[in-house]
Specification:
With 597 residues, the chain is α+β, with helices and mostly antiparallel strands. 17% of the residues lie in helices and 41% in strands. A hairpin with a 2-residue loop joins strand 8 and strand 9.
Length: 597
Protein backbone atom coordinates (compact mmCIF):
# COMPACT_ATOMS: atom_id res chain seq x y z
CA UNK A 1 0.00 0.00 0.00
CA UNK A 2 2.91 2.34 0.73
CA UNK A 3 4.17 1.78 -2.85
CA UNK A 4 0.77 2.73 -4.27
CA UNK A 5 0.74 5.76 -1.99
CA UNK A 6 4.11 6.98 -3.31
CA UNK A 7 3.12 6.28 -6.95
CA UNK A 8 -0.13 8.16 -6.48
CA UNK A 9 1.77 11.04 -4.88
CA UNK A 10 4.21 11.34 -7.80
CA UNK A 11 1.36 11.22 -10.33
CA UNK A 12 -0.49 13.86 -8.37
CA UNK A 13 2.57 16.10 -8.40
CA UNK A 14 2.88 15.88 -12.21
CA UNK A 15 -0.85 16.48 -12.63
CA UNK A 16 -0.98 19.44 -10.28
CA UNK A 17 2.11 21.05 -11.77
CA UNK A 18 0.38 20.97 -15.15
CA UNK A 19 -2.52 23.07 -13.88
CA UNK A 20 -1.79 26.80 -13.73
CA UNK A 21 -4.41 27.42 -11.04
CA UNK A 22 -2.88 24.90 -8.64
CA UNK A 23 0.77 25.40 -9.56
CA UNK A 24 0.95 28.46 -7.36
CA UNK A 25 0.26 26.30 -4.27
CA UNK A 26 3.25 25.10 -2.28
CA UNK A 27 1.54 21.87 -1.15
CA UNK A 28 0.32 18.70 -2.84
CA UNK A 29 -3.01 17.31 -1.64
CA UNK A 30 -1.91 13.72 -1.01
CA UNK A 31 -4.87 12.43 1.00
CA UNK A 32 -8.09 13.61 2.61
CA UNK A 33 -10.50 11.36 4.47
CA UNK A 34 -13.37 13.35 6.05
CA UNK A 35 -14.75 10.24 7.81
CA UNK A 36 -11.53 8.85 9.30
CA UNK A 37 -13.09 9.11 12.81
CA UNK A 38 -9.79 10.34 14.25
CA UNK A 39 -10.32 12.75 17.14
CA UNK A 40 -7.05 13.89 18.66
CA UNK A 41 -4.81 16.84 19.53
CA UNK A 42 -1.24 17.79 18.64
CA UNK A 43 0.02 16.40 21.96
CA UNK A 44 -1.34 12.94 21.05
CA UNK A 45 0.08 12.54 17.54
CA UNK A 46 3.59 11.58 16.37
CA UNK A 47 5.55 10.22 13.39
CA UNK A 48 7.80 7.26 14.15
CA UNK A 49 9.67 4.44 12.41
CA UNK A 50 8.03 1.72 14.50
CA UNK A 51 9.45 -1.27 12.62
CA UNK A 52 12.94 0.05 11.79
CA UNK A 53 12.36 -0.25 8.03
CA UNK A 54 13.02 3.43 7.24
CA UNK A 55 9.33 4.26 6.74
CA UNK A 56 7.67 6.42 9.36
CA UNK A 57 4.16 5.65 10.50
CA UNK A 58 1.57 7.97 11.96
CA UNK A 59 0.75 7.14 15.57
CA UNK A 60 -2.25 8.87 17.13
CA UNK A 61 -4.07 8.61 20.43
CA UNK A 62 -7.74 8.71 19.45
CA UNK A 63 -9.99 10.30 22.11
CA UNK A 64 -13.05 8.52 20.75
CA UNK A 65 -16.26 9.88 22.27
CA UNK A 66 -14.49 11.05 25.42
CA UNK A 67 -16.05 8.21 27.44
CA UNK A 68 -15.40 5.13 25.33
CA UNK A 69 -13.66 4.00 22.11
CA UNK A 70 -10.27 5.46 23.16
CA UNK A 71 -7.71 3.79 20.89
CA UNK A 72 -4.08 3.93 19.85
CA UNK A 73 -4.16 4.05 16.05
CA UNK A 74 -1.28 3.53 13.61
CA UNK A 75 -1.55 4.72 9.98
CA UNK A 76 0.66 3.62 7.11
CA UNK A 77 0.25 5.42 3.79
CA UNK A 78 -3.44 6.20 3.40
CA UNK A 79 -4.80 3.33 5.47
CA UNK A 80 -5.14 2.25 9.08
CA UNK A 81 -2.43 -0.29 9.95
CA UNK A 82 -3.48 -1.26 13.48
CA UNK A 83 -5.34 -0.05 16.54
CA UNK A 84 -5.19 -0.88 20.24
CA UNK A 85 -7.73 -0.10 22.95
CA UNK A 86 -6.80 2.45 25.61
CA UNK A 87 -8.22 2.20 29.12
CA UNK A 88 -8.55 5.96 29.66
CA UNK A 89 -8.36 9.26 27.81
CA UNK A 90 -4.81 9.96 26.57
CA UNK A 91 -3.36 13.33 27.67
CA UNK A 92 -0.15 13.01 25.69
CA UNK A 93 1.89 10.67 23.55
CA UNK A 94 5.56 10.59 22.48
CA UNK A 95 7.89 8.34 20.53
CA UNK A 96 11.33 7.70 22.02
CA UNK A 97 14.31 5.32 21.96
CA UNK A 98 14.68 3.66 25.35
CA UNK A 99 17.83 1.53 24.79
CA UNK A 100 20.72 0.81 22.42
CA UNK A 101 19.65 -2.72 21.54
CA UNK A 102 19.41 -3.76 17.92
CA UNK A 103 17.23 -3.35 15.97
CA UNK A 104 16.79 0.30 16.98
CA UNK A 105 13.01 0.51 17.11
CA UNK A 106 11.39 3.32 19.09
CA UNK A 107 8.83 2.83 21.81
CA UNK A 108 5.53 4.67 22.22
CA UNK A 109 4.66 6.21 25.60
CA UNK A 110 1.00 7.12 26.18
CA UNK A 111 0.13 9.22 29.23
CA UNK A 112 -3.33 8.49 30.61
CA UNK A 113 -4.49 9.45 34.10
CA UNK A 114 -1.73 8.65 36.64
CA UNK A 115 -0.15 6.06 34.33
CA UNK A 116 2.25 5.89 31.41
CA UNK A 117 1.70 2.95 29.08
CA UNK A 118 4.82 2.02 27.12
CA UNK A 119 4.38 0.08 23.88
CA UNK A 120 7.24 -1.73 22.14
CA UNK A 121 6.56 -3.13 18.65
CA UNK A 122 2.94 -2.02 19.15
CA UNK A 123 2.58 -4.35 22.13
CA UNK A 124 2.22 -3.41 25.82
CA UNK A 125 5.69 -3.36 27.38
CA UNK A 126 5.61 -1.46 30.67
CA UNK A 127 3.24 0.50 32.89
CA UNK A 128 4.56 3.35 35.05
CA UNK A 129 2.50 4.77 37.91
CA UNK A 130 3.05 8.18 39.45
CA UNK A 131 4.09 8.13 43.13
CA UNK A 132 1.29 8.73 45.62
CA UNK A 133 1.01 12.11 47.28
CA UNK A 134 0.96 12.89 50.97
CA UNK A 135 -2.43 12.41 52.60
CA UNK A 136 -3.76 14.91 55.11
CA UNK A 137 -3.42 13.29 58.58
CA UNK A 138 -6.61 15.00 59.78
CA UNK A 139 -8.47 13.45 56.85
CA UNK A 140 -7.12 10.02 57.80
CA UNK A 141 -8.26 10.54 61.39
CA UNK A 142 -11.77 11.51 60.25
CA UNK A 143 -12.13 8.40 58.08
CA UNK A 144 -10.76 6.26 60.92
CA UNK A 145 -13.57 7.54 63.13
CA UNK A 146 -16.08 6.73 60.39
CA UNK A 147 -14.58 3.24 60.08
CA UNK A 148 -15.14 2.60 63.79
CA UNK A 149 -18.71 4.02 63.56
CA UNK A 150 -17.86 6.84 65.93
CA UNK A 151 -19.44 9.46 63.64
CA UNK A 152 -22.37 9.37 61.25
CA UNK A 153 -22.18 10.33 57.52
CA UNK A 154 -23.54 13.85 58.07
CA UNK A 155 -20.92 14.58 60.73
CA UNK A 156 -18.28 13.15 58.40
CA UNK A 157 -19.46 15.54 55.67
CA UNK A 158 -19.26 18.56 57.99
CA UNK A 159 -15.73 17.67 59.16
CA UNK A 160 -14.48 17.08 55.60
CA UNK A 161 -15.94 20.41 54.44
CA UNK A 162 -14.05 22.15 57.24
CA UNK A 163 -10.82 20.43 56.20
CA UNK A 164 -11.37 21.31 52.54
CA UNK A 165 -11.65 25.03 53.32
CA UNK A 166 -8.72 25.31 55.76
CA UNK A 167 -6.23 22.48 55.19
CA UNK A 168 -3.01 23.12 53.26
CA UNK A 169 -2.98 19.57 51.83
CA UNK A 170 -5.89 18.99 49.43
CA UNK A 171 -8.41 16.25 50.10
CA UNK A 172 -8.24 12.87 48.39
CA UNK A 173 -10.48 11.91 45.50
CA UNK A 174 -12.53 9.70 47.83
CA UNK A 175 -13.39 12.61 50.12
CA UNK A 176 -14.20 14.91 47.21
CA UNK A 177 -16.55 12.33 45.71
CA UNK A 178 -18.20 11.83 49.09
CA UNK A 179 -18.90 15.57 49.38
CA UNK A 180 -20.65 15.51 46.00
CA UNK A 181 -23.17 12.82 47.02
CA UNK A 182 -26.77 13.28 48.06
CA UNK A 183 -27.57 12.60 51.76
CA UNK A 184 -29.33 9.33 50.97
CA UNK A 185 -26.27 8.00 49.10
CA UNK A 186 -23.64 8.81 51.75
CA UNK A 187 -24.17 5.82 54.03
CA UNK A 188 -23.71 3.27 51.25
CA UNK A 189 -20.57 5.08 50.08
CA UNK A 190 -19.06 5.00 53.58
CA UNK A 191 -19.83 1.29 54.01
CA UNK A 192 -18.20 0.54 50.66
CA UNK A 193 -14.96 2.53 51.13
CA UNK A 194 -14.26 2.83 54.85
CA UNK A 195 -12.19 -0.38 54.96
CA UNK A 196 -9.91 0.75 52.14
CA UNK A 197 -6.80 2.89 52.77
CA UNK A 198 -6.88 6.52 51.68
CA UNK A 199 -4.70 7.43 48.74
CA UNK A 200 -4.14 10.77 47.06
CA UNK A 201 -3.10 10.28 43.46
CA UNK A 202 -2.26 12.96 40.90
CA UNK A 203 -2.60 12.69 37.11
CA UNK A 204 -0.39 13.52 34.14
CA UNK A 205 -1.19 16.71 32.22
CA UNK A 206 1.63 16.82 29.63
CA UNK A 207 4.55 14.70 28.44
CA UNK A 208 7.75 15.21 26.45
CA UNK A 209 11.16 13.67 25.75
CA UNK A 210 14.70 14.73 26.69
CA UNK A 211 17.90 13.34 25.15
CA UNK A 212 19.94 11.60 27.83
CA UNK A 213 23.57 12.26 26.89
CA UNK A 214 23.76 12.82 23.12
CA UNK A 215 21.99 15.20 20.74
CA UNK A 216 21.81 12.69 17.85
CA UNK A 217 18.43 11.93 16.32
CA UNK A 218 18.71 8.23 17.28
CA UNK A 219 19.97 8.89 20.81
CA UNK A 220 18.36 7.44 23.93
CA UNK A 221 15.75 9.77 25.45
CA UNK A 222 14.25 10.25 28.89
CA UNK A 223 10.56 10.91 29.52
CA UNK A 224 9.57 14.27 31.00
CA UNK A 225 6.10 14.50 32.53
CA UNK A 226 4.11 17.30 34.16
CA UNK A 227 1.49 16.51 36.80
CA UNK A 228 -1.70 18.09 38.12
CA UNK A 229 -0.10 19.07 41.45
CA UNK A 230 2.59 21.17 39.71
CA UNK A 231 5.51 18.70 39.73
CA UNK A 232 7.77 17.86 36.76
CA UNK A 233 9.48 14.46 36.69
CA UNK A 234 12.33 13.18 34.49
CA UNK A 235 12.23 9.37 34.16
CA UNK A 236 15.01 6.94 33.36
CA UNK A 237 14.37 5.40 29.90
CA UNK A 238 15.23 1.84 30.94
CA UNK A 239 14.31 1.39 34.61
CA UNK A 240 11.56 4.08 34.58
CA UNK A 241 12.71 5.47 37.89
CA UNK A 242 12.56 9.17 38.76
CA UNK A 243 15.91 10.79 37.96
CA UNK A 244 15.00 14.38 38.77
CA UNK A 245 12.05 16.26 40.25
CA UNK A 246 11.15 19.94 39.85
CA UNK A 247 8.24 22.01 41.14
CA UNK A 248 6.09 24.70 39.55
CA UNK A 249 3.74 27.30 41.09
CA UNK A 250 0.82 26.07 38.95
CA UNK A 251 -0.38 23.08 36.95
CA UNK A 252 1.49 22.65 33.63
CA UNK A 253 -0.53 22.08 30.46
CA UNK A 254 1.99 22.68 27.64
CA UNK A 255 5.64 21.62 27.55
CA UNK A 256 8.69 21.94 25.32
CA UNK A 257 12.03 20.29 26.15
CA UNK A 258 15.50 20.84 24.68
CA UNK A 259 19.09 19.81 25.57
CA UNK A 260 20.57 16.69 27.20
CA UNK A 261 19.97 15.46 30.72
CA UNK A 262 23.64 14.73 31.47
CA UNK A 263 24.85 18.07 30.03
CA UNK A 264 22.34 20.93 30.12
CA UNK A 265 18.63 21.16 29.42
CA UNK A 266 15.79 23.66 29.43
CA UNK A 267 12.15 22.79 30.00
CA UNK A 268 9.68 25.47 28.92
CA UNK A 269 6.29 24.98 30.57
CA UNK A 270 3.04 26.91 30.09
CA UNK A 271 0.83 26.73 33.18
CA UNK A 272 -2.82 27.29 33.92
CA UNK A 273 -2.15 30.54 35.79
CA UNK A 274 -1.29 32.22 32.48
CA UNK A 275 2.49 32.21 33.00
CA UNK A 276 5.36 30.43 31.26
CA UNK A 277 8.18 29.04 33.38
CA UNK A 278 11.64 27.94 32.22
CA UNK A 279 13.32 25.16 34.21
CA UNK A 280 17.05 24.35 34.07
CA UNK A 281 19.19 21.52 35.32
CA UNK A 282 20.87 23.49 38.10
CA UNK A 283 17.64 24.53 39.86
CA UNK A 284 14.55 22.58 41.03
CA UNK A 285 12.56 25.83 40.85
CA UNK A 286 11.77 27.92 37.75
CA UNK A 287 14.70 30.00 36.50
CA UNK A 288 12.68 32.52 34.48
CA UNK A 289 9.01 33.50 34.35
CA UNK A 290 7.06 35.04 31.44
CA UNK A 291 3.79 36.73 32.40
CA UNK A 292 1.24 36.71 29.59
CA UNK A 293 -1.75 38.99 29.07
CA UNK A 294 -4.00 35.99 28.34
CA UNK A 295 -3.84 32.23 28.80
CA UNK A 296 -1.52 30.26 26.48
CA UNK A 297 -3.10 27.75 24.09
CA UNK A 298 0.01 26.79 22.10
CA UNK A 299 3.76 26.60 22.77
CA UNK A 300 6.55 25.96 20.24
CA UNK A 301 10.30 26.43 20.55
CA UNK A 302 12.01 27.65 17.38
CA UNK A 303 15.78 27.84 17.76
CA UNK A 304 16.56 29.83 20.90
CA UNK A 305 13.20 31.59 20.93
CA UNK A 306 9.80 30.55 22.25
CA UNK A 307 6.61 31.22 20.28
CA UNK A 308 3.39 31.33 22.31
CA UNK A 309 -0.17 31.42 21.00
CA UNK A 310 -2.64 33.09 23.38
CA UNK A 311 -6.39 32.96 23.75
CA UNK A 312 -6.78 36.64 22.76
CA UNK A 313 -5.92 35.83 19.11
CA UNK A 314 -2.27 36.86 19.42
CA UNK A 315 1.08 35.22 18.75
CA UNK A 316 4.10 36.28 20.84
CA UNK A 317 7.81 35.65 20.47
CA UNK A 318 10.13 35.52 23.51
CA UNK A 319 13.76 34.79 24.17
CA UNK A 320 14.66 31.84 26.37
CA UNK A 321 15.23 34.35 29.22
CA UNK A 322 11.72 35.79 28.92
CA UNK A 323 12.34 38.97 26.90
CA UNK A 324 9.51 39.81 24.52
CA UNK A 325 10.60 40.12 20.87
CA UNK A 326 7.45 40.60 18.80
CA UNK A 327 3.67 40.23 18.65
CA UNK A 328 1.51 39.14 15.71
CA UNK A 329 -2.27 39.56 15.66
CA UNK A 330 -4.35 36.69 14.29
CA UNK A 331 -7.71 36.80 12.48
CA UNK A 332 -9.23 34.00 14.61
CA UNK A 333 -8.60 32.06 17.85
CA UNK A 334 -5.75 29.54 17.93
CA UNK A 335 -6.75 25.86 17.95
CA UNK A 336 -3.33 24.17 17.75
CA UNK A 337 0.35 24.87 17.02
CA UNK A 338 3.31 22.82 15.76
CA UNK A 339 6.87 23.27 14.55
CA UNK A 340 7.74 22.92 10.87
CA UNK A 341 11.40 21.87 10.60
CA UNK A 342 13.13 21.10 7.29
CA UNK A 343 16.81 20.40 8.09
CA UNK A 344 17.63 19.68 4.44
CA UNK A 345 16.65 23.25 3.50
CA UNK A 346 17.62 24.90 6.77
CA UNK A 347 14.04 26.15 7.13
CA UNK A 348 12.02 26.47 10.33
CA UNK A 349 8.57 27.95 10.84
CA UNK A 350 5.60 27.79 13.19
CA UNK A 351 2.32 26.28 11.99
CA UNK A 352 -0.73 27.82 13.67
CA UNK A 353 -4.18 26.28 13.25
CA UNK A 354 -7.03 28.80 13.50
CA UNK A 355 -10.74 28.51 14.15
CA UNK A 356 -11.57 30.04 10.73
CA UNK A 357 -10.46 26.85 8.89
CA UNK A 358 -6.98 28.17 8.09
CA UNK A 359 -3.43 27.20 8.97
CA UNK A 360 -0.94 30.06 9.04
CA UNK A 361 2.81 29.64 8.71
CA UNK A 362 4.99 32.17 10.56
CA UNK A 363 8.70 32.87 10.53
CA UNK A 364 9.19 35.16 13.50
CA UNK A 365 6.32 37.63 13.14
CA UNK A 366 6.13 37.28 9.34
CA UNK A 367 3.22 35.40 7.78
CA UNK A 368 4.81 33.49 4.89
CA UNK A 369 2.01 31.13 3.86
CA UNK A 370 -1.68 30.31 4.44
CA UNK A 371 -3.34 26.91 4.00
CA UNK A 372 -7.12 26.62 3.61
CA UNK A 373 -8.74 23.54 5.19
CA UNK A 374 -12.26 22.11 4.79
CA UNK A 375 -12.78 22.01 8.58
CA UNK A 376 -11.28 23.42 11.77
CA UNK A 377 -7.87 21.82 12.42
CA UNK A 378 -7.38 20.29 15.89
CA UNK A 379 -3.90 18.76 15.51
CA UNK A 380 -0.86 19.34 13.32
CA UNK A 381 2.22 17.19 12.79
CA UNK A 382 5.02 17.89 10.32
CA UNK A 383 7.89 15.57 9.48
CA UNK A 384 8.85 12.41 7.63
CA UNK A 385 5.90 10.19 6.70
CA UNK A 386 6.67 7.07 4.75
CA UNK A 387 9.77 8.13 2.83
CA UNK A 388 8.69 11.72 2.21
CA UNK A 389 10.40 14.31 4.45
CA UNK A 390 8.11 17.32 4.00
CA UNK A 391 4.74 15.85 4.98
CA UNK A 392 2.09 17.84 6.80
CA UNK A 393 -0.55 15.79 8.64
CA UNK A 394 -3.64 17.43 10.13
CA UNK A 395 -6.79 16.17 11.83
CA UNK A 396 -10.02 18.13 11.89
CA UNK A 397 -12.78 18.78 14.39
CA UNK A 398 -15.13 16.45 12.54
CA UNK A 399 -12.67 13.52 12.71
CA UNK A 400 -11.13 13.98 9.26
CA UNK A 401 -7.53 13.26 8.26
CA UNK A 402 -5.60 15.53 5.87
CA UNK A 403 -2.17 14.70 4.40
CA UNK A 404 -0.25 17.29 2.36
CA UNK A 405 3.25 17.06 0.88
CA UNK A 406 5.50 20.06 0.43
CA UNK A 407 6.58 20.58 -3.15
CA UNK A 408 10.29 20.32 -3.81
CA UNK A 409 10.07 23.59 -5.77
CA UNK A 410 8.28 25.47 -2.98
CA UNK A 411 9.98 28.68 -1.87
CA UNK A 412 8.88 30.69 1.16
CA UNK A 413 9.68 34.39 1.17
CA UNK A 414 10.68 36.04 4.42
CA UNK A 415 8.63 39.15 3.74
CA UNK A 416 5.42 39.54 5.64
CA UNK A 417 2.29 39.03 3.54
CA UNK A 418 0.03 40.46 6.27
CA UNK A 419 -0.66 44.21 6.56
CA UNK A 420 1.24 46.04 9.24
CA UNK A 421 4.53 47.77 9.94
CA UNK A 422 7.55 46.87 7.78
CA UNK A 423 10.13 44.32 8.88
CA UNK A 424 12.76 47.05 9.30
CA UNK A 425 10.75 48.46 12.18
CA UNK A 426 11.47 45.39 14.31
CA UNK A 427 15.26 45.53 13.72
CA UNK A 428 17.05 46.62 16.86
CA UNK A 429 19.07 49.82 16.69
CA UNK A 430 22.79 49.68 17.32
CA UNK A 431 22.74 51.66 20.55
CA UNK A 432 26.28 52.67 21.64
CA UNK A 433 27.58 51.63 25.02
CA UNK A 434 27.39 53.93 28.01
CA UNK A 435 30.43 56.20 28.25
CA UNK A 436 32.04 57.58 31.41
CA UNK A 437 30.71 61.04 30.57
CA UNK A 438 27.18 59.64 30.39
CA UNK A 439 27.53 57.87 33.74
CA UNK A 440 28.95 61.02 35.40
CA UNK A 441 26.12 63.12 33.99
CA UNK A 442 23.55 60.61 35.27
CA UNK A 443 25.05 60.70 38.77
CA UNK A 444 25.03 64.51 38.73
CA UNK A 445 21.36 64.57 37.74
CA UNK A 446 20.49 62.18 40.56
CA UNK A 447 22.32 64.26 43.17
CA UNK A 448 20.93 67.64 42.01
CA UNK A 449 17.49 66.59 40.81
CA UNK A 450 15.55 69.14 42.93
CA UNK A 451 17.73 72.12 41.98
CA UNK A 452 17.68 71.19 38.28
CA UNK A 453 13.87 70.86 38.34
CA UNK A 454 13.49 74.29 39.97
CA UNK A 455 15.80 75.88 37.40
CA UNK A 456 13.84 74.25 34.59
CA UNK A 457 10.52 75.54 35.97
CA UNK A 458 11.98 79.07 36.30
CA UNK A 459 13.24 79.06 32.72
CA UNK A 460 9.90 77.70 31.53
CA UNK A 461 8.01 80.48 33.29
CA UNK A 462 10.31 83.12 31.79
CA UNK A 463 9.79 81.62 28.35
CA UNK A 464 6.02 81.75 28.75
CA UNK A 465 6.18 85.38 29.93
CA UNK A 466 8.35 86.41 26.98
CA UNK A 467 5.98 84.67 24.56
CA UNK A 468 2.95 86.41 26.10
CA UNK A 469 4.63 89.82 25.89
CA UNK A 470 5.57 89.22 22.26
CA UNK A 471 2.00 88.20 21.46
CA UNK A 472 0.53 91.31 23.08
CA UNK A 473 3.04 93.51 21.26
CA UNK A 474 2.15 91.86 17.97
CA UNK A 475 -1.54 92.52 18.62
CA UNK A 476 -0.89 96.17 19.42
CA UNK A 477 1.47 96.92 16.57
CA UNK A 478 0.49 94.44 13.92
CA UNK A 479 0.79 95.68 10.33
CA UNK A 480 -1.00 92.78 8.65
CA UNK A 481 -4.74 93.15 8.06
CA UNK A 482 -5.28 89.37 8.35
CA UNK A 483 -6.38 87.38 11.37
CA UNK A 484 -7.68 83.92 12.27
CA UNK A 485 -9.66 82.77 15.31
CA UNK A 486 -8.39 80.12 17.67
CA UNK A 487 -11.85 79.26 19.04
CA UNK A 488 -14.07 79.59 15.96
CA UNK A 489 -13.46 78.46 12.34
CA UNK A 490 -13.18 82.06 11.03
CA UNK A 491 -10.69 83.88 8.82
CA UNK A 492 -10.72 87.61 7.92
CA UNK A 493 -8.60 89.97 5.84
CA UNK A 494 -8.99 93.70 5.08
CA UNK A 495 -8.37 95.75 1.92
CA UNK A 496 -8.06 99.60 1.91
CA UNK A 497 -8.73 101.40 -1.41
CA UNK A 498 -8.32 105.09 -2.27
CA UNK A 499 -5.82 107.99 -2.00
CA UNK A 500 -7.77 110.07 0.50
CA UNK A 501 -9.31 111.79 2.13
CA UNK A 502 -12.05 109.15 1.45
CA UNK A 503 -11.14 105.49 1.70
CA UNK A 504 -13.11 102.34 0.96
CA UNK A 505 -12.55 99.61 3.55
CA UNK A 506 -13.50 96.03 2.52
CA UNK A 507 -13.53 93.14 4.98
CA UNK A 508 -13.54 89.58 3.60
CA UNK A 509 -14.83 87.03 6.14
CA UNK A 510 -14.78 83.26 5.55
CA UNK A 511 -16.06 80.25 7.52
CA UNK A 512 -13.32 77.59 7.42
CA UNK A 513 -15.37 74.80 9.02
CA UNK A 514 -16.09 71.61 7.08
CA UNK A 515 -19.89 71.56 7.39
CA UNK A 516 -20.97 73.73 10.36
CA UNK A 517 -22.38 77.22 9.66
CA UNK A 518 -21.61 80.21 11.92
CA UNK A 519 -24.29 82.73 12.92
CA UNK A 520 -25.10 85.57 15.34
CA UNK A 521 -21.89 87.55 14.66
CA UNK A 522 -21.22 91.28 14.46
CA UNK A 523 -18.32 93.62 13.47
CA UNK A 524 -17.25 96.69 15.44
CA UNK A 525 -14.56 99.30 14.61
CA UNK A 526 -12.38 101.16 17.11
CA UNK A 527 -10.59 104.32 15.83
CA UNK A 528 -9.52 107.84 16.77
CA UNK A 529 -12.54 110.07 16.17
CA UNK A 530 -10.28 113.14 15.83
CA UNK A 531 -8.63 111.63 12.75
CA UNK A 532 -11.33 109.50 11.11
CA UNK A 533 -15.03 109.27 10.72
CA UNK A 534 -16.99 106.22 9.50
CA UNK A 535 -20.44 106.11 8.02
CA UNK A 536 -21.17 102.76 9.68
CA UNK A 537 -19.04 101.59 12.62
CA UNK A 538 -21.11 98.50 13.48
CA UNK A 539 -22.36 95.67 11.22
CA UNK A 540 -24.35 92.50 11.76
CA UNK A 541 -22.89 89.58 9.84
CA UNK A 542 -25.30 87.22 8.08
CA UNK A 543 -25.14 83.43 8.45
CA UNK A 544 -21.73 82.24 7.21
CA UNK A 545 -21.91 79.12 5.00
CA UNK A 546 -18.68 77.06 5.06
CA UNK A 547 -16.30 77.74 2.20
CA UNK A 548 -17.86 81.00 0.92
CA UNK A 549 -16.26 84.46 1.06
CA UNK A 550 -18.44 87.28 2.45
CA UNK A 551 -17.25 90.87 1.59
CA UNK A 552 -18.41 93.73 3.87
CA UNK A 553 -17.78 97.34 2.68
CA UNK A 554 -17.69 100.66 4.55
CA UNK A 555 -16.23 104.14 3.92
CA UNK A 556 -13.70 106.04 6.04
CA UNK A 557 -13.16 109.81 5.94
CA UNK A 558 -9.84 111.36 7.04
CA UNK A 559 -10.41 114.58 9.10
CA UNK A 560 -6.78 115.72 9.56
CA UNK A 561 -4.76 117.88 7.18
CA UNK A 562 -1.42 117.28 8.89
CA UNK A 563 -0.50 114.19 6.87
CA UNK A 564 -0.68 111.72 9.73
CA UNK A 565 -2.32 108.29 9.92
CA UNK A 566 -3.39 105.84 12.60
CA UNK A 567 -4.55 102.26 13.13
CA UNK A 568 -8.18 101.16 12.93
CA UNK A 569 -8.98 98.08 14.98
CA UNK A 570 -11.62 95.59 13.82
CA UNK A 571 -13.40 93.24 16.24
CA UNK A 572 -15.64 90.27 15.36
CA UNK A 573 -18.04 89.65 18.24
CA UNK A 574 -20.75 87.15 19.06
CA UNK A 575 -24.02 88.65 20.13
CA UNK A 576 -24.32 88.74 23.89
CA UNK A 577 -20.57 88.22 24.45
CA UNK A 578 -18.02 90.91 25.30
CA UNK A 579 -14.83 89.03 24.36
CA UNK A 580 -13.98 89.30 20.64
CA UNK A 581 -13.68 86.14 18.57
CA UNK A 582 -11.44 87.78 15.97
CA UNK A 583 -9.24 90.91 15.97
CA UNK A 584 -7.47 92.70 13.13
CA UNK A 585 -5.37 95.91 13.03
CA UNK A 586 -5.58 98.01 9.83
CA UNK A 587 -2.76 100.46 9.24
CA UNK A 588 -4.42 103.28 7.29
CA UNK A 589 -2.43 105.07 4.56
CA UNK A 590 -1.53 108.80 4.72
CA UNK A 591 -4.25 110.95 3.19
CA UNK A 592 -3.25 113.18 0.24
CA UNK A 593 -6.12 115.64 0.75
CA UNK A 594 -8.49 117.05 3.32
CA UNK A 595 -12.07 116.04 3.69
CA UNK A 596 -14.64 118.70 2.79
CA UNK A 597 -17.11 119.68 5.52
Amino acid sequence: MQRWFLIWTVCSEFFLCSCSSVASSKWLDAHYDPVANLYTFSSCIALSDLHGDGENKLVAGDLGTGVCNMKLKVYHGTGLLSESTLLDLPTGMVSFLMDLHEPRTPAIAVASGPFIYVYKNLRPYFKFTLPSLEVNPLEQDVWSQAKEDMIDPMTLKEMLEGLRDKAEIPLSVRSLRFLMLEPQEMEDFVLLHKEQPIRRQTVITCIGTLKKNMADEDAVSCLVIGTENGDVYILDPEAFTILYKMSLPSTPNLMDVTGQFDVEFRITVACRNGNIYILRRDSPKPKYCIELSSHPVGLVRMGKNVVVGCSHETLHGYTQKGKKLWTAYLPAPVTTMALMDLPTRGFQAVLVGLANCEVHMYRDKNLVSTIKTPDVVTSICFGRYGREDGTLIMTTKGGGLIVKILKRTAVFEDRDSAPGPPIAQSIRLNVPKKTKLYVDQTLRERENAVAMHRAFQMDLSRLRLAAARAYVKALESSLTPMSASLTEPLKMNAVVQGLGPSFKLTLNIQNTAACRPVMNLAISFLYDENLYSMRTAFFKIPLLVPGLNYPIDTFVECLSDKGISDIIKVFVLREGKSAPLLTAHINMPVSEGLALN
